[in-house]
Design a protein that fits this description.
Layout (H helix, E strand, L loop, with lengths): L13 H5 L4 E3 L9 E5 L1 H6 L4 H4 L2 H7 L11 E3 L3 E3 L2 E3 L7 E8 L5 E7 L16 H16 L6 E13 L3 E11 L5 H9 L3 H15 L9 H23 L1 E2 L21 E2 L23 H20 L3 H12 L2 H16 L8 H17 L4 H12 L4 H4 L5 H12 L5 H5 L9 H12 L4 H10 L30
Antiparallel strand pairs: 1-3, 2-8, 4-5, 6-7, 7-9, 8-9, 10-11
The chain binds adenosine monophosphate and magnesium ion.
């Protein structure tokens, strides 16, 4: 008789132990008819979890948080946040739970977390649930981001619950099992600061330093070093979003991590035509989180982080503010340096080219792409072809050919390496029309398009025969794309 493999999982409860004021013991809602839709086997292996065992009923119970080791202490985390500029003192996990922290194969601490696991005391009017489509969307887009080398939370699995979820229509429900280096957010600090409990704020900052910016512990001023570390991490992250054409869509302070990982794949989308004014989210009426606004909004969010940290920076408020402003001013040069480094690679140029020259060249090219409403991902790929001597595909897209030809001449004189460009300019991103097609099919019960899309976007730089449709721009009749938040 064969014995079913069992999952061995050791979960710590460090967040709950060190920050009990921000952790509410809670349990996941049992699922009436669970069905594993997608399991991330490479990630399971990284975490030291047996994929085969995760596919058993006990494993699926673990992924749903309903069949945990006896000593696990799942909690809903408290946090606050500025949403579209307006402050909410109490958001928290209204449909999520932190199951605990595990140590991965490389000894790193990783949060195991659920999204869509039922109502909690933070749910307000919400039902605590999530639908299959949006959870698979997070799975596909976050795994694409990871494959692109962009820091992000990960998705271990999506399990359909068998529970109906009421949205505009009735949809099948699901739970996403998320893995992150932590779920500490700017909003976590805003929450701690608002309690006026300086000891809590200090414990939170120490916890964040230990988990994400350990070098700060040895700095002359550890809390200032923490702030500097987060400024640096966010500047680099947003530069990478901009380089690849990622629109986060809901950069509220509760969706900004201290680790510098991208979090919260609600209304996000990748650019089709290059246009800085692009907004996909149906609720972003003013365009606050438009593609081109992202660097400015990241800095705005970091200013809210600084405000939360002020009492730790200096007991004297004026001195604390001066220190915060000085550190915050490092965002702009850090962002420019990260963007220049990325553009240099996208343009196939050697490391020696000066930042200003690279940024100037990149910006001039983007003006041409904007005017022609050129597909952003394809254009960069055509640039590789242009570097190898054939500029015709790109010339076929851009309107102002004399300007493009003059630009190409200057760029070619710098000796761009087309093959190196193909290793950094993706051919496969989760294009909006493909994501919609895959999610519609999955919601109706057919996972084949999702599997094929996942296969393409997790090999972002390899153009493979048979996968041409994953490299092509949206059909002209795809129209104005809209995404929806928190659905
Ligand atoms: P998000 O837009 O996903 O970052 O969510 C913002 C806040 O709304 C968080 O406190 C979430 O937990 C909460 N929330 C979002 N959707 C739901 C839902 N369906 N039920 C309960 N709370 C929700
Ligand atoms: Mg969120």
């Amino acid at each position: 008789m064969s014995v079913a493999p069992s999952v061995t999982l050791r979960l710590d409860d460090r967040f709950a132990r060190e920050l009990p004021e921000m952790a509410l013991a809670w349990k996941a809602l049992p699922a009436p008819d669970p069905r594993l839709l997608v399991l991330n086997e490479p990630l399971a292996a990284e975490l030291g979890l047996d994929a085969e065992a995760l596919r058993t009923p006990a494993g699926v119970g673990l992924l749903l948080g309903t069949d945990l080791p006896a000593d696990a202490h799942p909690v809903a985390q408290a946090y606050a946040g500025h949403q579209f500029g307006g402050y909410s003192p109490r958001l928290g996990d209204g449909r999520a739970l932190l199951l605990g922290e595990l140590t991965d194969r490389e000894g790193r601490t990783r949060d195991l977390h659920l999204k869509g696991s039922g109502r909690t005391p933070f749910s307000r009017g919400g039902d605590g649930l999530a639908a299959v489509g949006p959870m698979l969307r997070e799975h596909v887009v976050s795994e694409a981001m990871h494959a692109l080398g962009i820091p992000t939370t990960r998705s271990l699995a999506v399990v359909a619950t068998g529970r109906a979820v009421q949205r505009e229509t009735v949809l099948p429900g699901a739970v996403l099992t998320r893995v992150a280096s932590s779920h500490l957010r700017v909003g976590s600090f805003q929450y701690a600061r608002a309690t006026d409990d300086l000891d809590l704020l200090r414990r939170l900052a120490d916890h964040a330093i230990d988990r994400h910016h350990p070098a700060a512990a040895d700095a002359a001023h550890p809390y200032r070093a923490l702030f500097d570390g987060v400024v640096e991490a966010q500047a680099s992250l947003v530069a990478q979003w901009m380089l690849v054409g990622f629109v986060h869509g809901v950069m509220n302070t509760d969706n900004v991590t201290i680790s510098g990982e991208t979090i919260d794949y609600g209304p996000c989308a990748f650019l089709d035509a290059y246009d800085p004014a692009t907004v996909y989210s149906s609720i972003d009426h003013g365009g606050r989180y438009a593609y081109g606004n992202q660097p400015v909004l990241a800095q705005w969010n970091l200013a809210r982080f600084a405000e939360s940290l002020l009492p730790l920076l200096d007991a004297e408020q004026d001195r604390a503010v001066a220190m915060a402003v000085e550190s915050l001013e490092r965002f702009t040069p850090a962002y420019a340096a990260a963007r220049a480094a990325g553009l240099r690679r996208k343009l196939g140029l050697p490391a020696g080219q000066a930042d200003d020259l690279v940024l100037g060249l990149g910006d001039e090219l983007l003006v041409l792409l904007h005017a022609g409403r050129v597909d952003h991902t394809s254009a960069w790929r055509m640039m590789g072809t242009a570097a190898r001597g054939d500029a015709e595909p790109l010339r076929g897209q851009v309107l102002d050919l004399p300007a493009l030809d003059a630009w190409l001449e200057r760029w070619r004189a710098l000796g761009p390496d087309g093959d190196a460009m193909d290793r950094v300019n993706p051919v496969h991103v989760p294009r909006n029309h493909l994501v919609e097609e895959a999610l519609d099919a999955a919601t109706a019960g057919d996972l084949a398009p999702l599997t094929a899309l996942l296969d393409a976007v997790t090999s972002p730089y390899d153009a493979r025969p048979g996968q041409e449709r994953y490299a092509e721009p949206a059909p002209v009749d795809f129209g104005d794309y809209q995404t929806f938040c928190g659905t």
